[in-house]
Amino acid sequence: PRSAAHRVVHRKASSPRLAFVNTAWRLLDLVLVHRTMLVLAILSMVGLAIATGCYPLLVDLVMTRLVAGSHASADVALPLLGKVNVLFDGLGLSVDLLALSHWIDAHLALVFGAVVGVKTVSQAVRFYAMGFIAQRAVQDLRSKLFAAIVRQGHTLVRRENTGPLVARLVSDIDHVERAATYAAPMLIGDGLRVLVLAGMCALQYPRL
Description:
Elements: H1 4-13, H2 16-32, H3 35-68, H4 72-83, H5 85-90, H6 97-106, H7 108-152, H8 155-159, H9 163-172, H10 174-204
Helix pairs in contact: 3-4, 3-7, 3-10, 4-6, 7-10
């Protein structure tokens, strides 16, 4: 086994950037074990971003209906539906855009409530899935660290200061759980929301 001095020299020789990359890959391996929950979390983030992007359009329809009266929001919705008709054609769907715009106008409150429901459910699923992944990743990481310590034998306790190591096992690993549960979803989700809002803005105001 390597001596403590050799390990210290090796740690000093390794660049911080390389150490960060290696740590990131190891954590990614722990996360990718739970692929199903990860896919569920990503889908919930996409749904949350799309629901958030629909808010400005729905507010525009509601304000148009309140100011201009009934059926006015259908005139606003029809051009927007015409721009996304390419998506309907790509899915092989034949949609009567005029009838759909009048249906949205007649059931505007229902559509708004459905979007709010999608956003609420997506947010709940995102937190559950990422929390599940974070807890399992932390459990696996602690198990691997404990197994590595056991393999060193009792000489490790005599030779090394185990206080910082115990601190990492007990408290520092909790930072990984918080990062996976809160920081990562916010980083990815906010990026998706910015993209969706930019797309909605370009769709509604193409001259901008």
